[in-house]
Amino acid sequence: MGKGHVQTYDWVVKLLNDCDFDGAACRLGFDRTADGDLAIDFLGRRYRITKEGIEPPVPKDVRNEVFEFNVRSVLGYYALSDGNCEPLLDFYPLNYFSHGVFSGGAGKSGAEWSTEPLRKAIGGSYKKFCAAAEKLGLAFEETRGEGKYIWSYLLLPKLPVKIAYYEGDDDFPSDVKILYDKTAPLFFKFEPLAVLNACFIHALAGAAVNDENHD
């Protein structure tokens, strides 16, 4: 039995054989290459989607193979999506779309569990979060009340997200919540959406750690 993330990617690539690239480019905001393939920017990198796979390929010496395969699978799912609408700019946490299935266990909500790698990487420092957010291309939007900061990001052409950072105090630790447009389920079923969320969190956490290593 092969690795699950590899099997998922291989299955998505098989589905791409029948994908309508013209329709995907029109509905979902992909660019087209000179060869007729799809191209898209995602988490700071440029990807090309062909009928044979998603490039650049996963390098053999990659540190986080699961992340690299998941990114490519998510982009494949997006190309295969039947979604055809504009965002409503009405945002909700990831577990809103799970119909009660998604939870973190051990007393944590799904939202808390999903952002834990990021919260660990920034260590309660809003300054460190800001550095990571700016490095990845997030845009600061506004301050809401005392200690609540809202950032925005276009994760995919039809999928804007809001990132809410809550500064901690003596009673509560700092927290980060990722909010998705209400139309997100029209482009992703819940499981791929959760994988997309994990990829985003991983990239933000990685930006925070790498920034710390270069200080």
| Approximate strand percentage | 15-25%
The average pLDDT value, as a whole number, equals 90
Helical proportion?
25-40%
Number of helices: 7
Q: Biggest sheet: strands side by side, in what order?
A: 5-9-8-7-6
Secondary structure class reads alpha+beta
- N-to-C CA distance: 43 Å
Estimated radius of gyration: 18 Å
Number of strands: 9
The shape is globular
Low-confidence stretches: 102-110
Helix and strand succession?
HHEEEEHEHHHEEEEH
Largest sheet: 5 strands, antiparallel
In short:
The protein is an alpha+beta fold and 215 residues long.
How do the strands and helices of this protein lay out in sequence?
Elements: H1 4-16, H2 21-28, E1 31-32, E2 38-42, E3 45-49, E4 54-55, H3 65-80, E5 91-93, H4 110-114, H5 116-122, H6 126-136, E6 139-143, E7 148-156, E8 159-166, E9 175-181, H7 190-213
Antiparallel strand pairs: 1-2, 2-3, 3-4, 5-9, 6-7, 7-8, 8-9
